[in-house]
Design brief:
- This protein has about 150 residues and is α+β, with helices and mostly antiparallel strands.
- It has one domain.
- The protein has 6 helices and 5 strands; from the N terminus they run H-H-E-E-E-E-E-H-H-H-H.
- Helix 5 runs antiparallel to helix 6.
- The longest helix has 21 residues.
- The N and C termini lie far apart (about 35 Å).
Length: about 150
Amino acid sequence: MIRTLSKHSPETKEFLKYIREDLKAHRVHLSFSRTRKVRFSKELLTAGFFQEPSHRKWGKIRIGSGNRKSINILVNLAHEYIHFLQWKNGDCQWTGGTEDFIEGESYILLEERTERDAIRLLREWGIPANYNAMRMRSKAYLAHLRRTET
């Protein structure tokens, strides 16, 4: 999947290379499934997730890529990479959850900031994309969270 995504632009190729190296340096695997959603837990399927490494196990970022546009996969990767950075930098919003799972309003606030930062990250790297469409998709995702989390 990385090979497919990196064919889109030199900026995308460099961005993906940078992410892979940063994740590897912090013992986090990056993988893509052929399905649209990936299993985070027994009950939860999602478009992607970040799981922190422990002293025994590597962490992971897993992204569902089946039947999705490349730019949507890339946006999802940027989102999960921002969660990785929150963990890496000891962000108090990331570490503020109870028992490894953040819920309710705290989760929504974290996701709002993550969505904003993911789009900013893609802009900083010069990834060619329709940023208005990204923002609309992000707003729809956040509206869905507000309906289901509160």
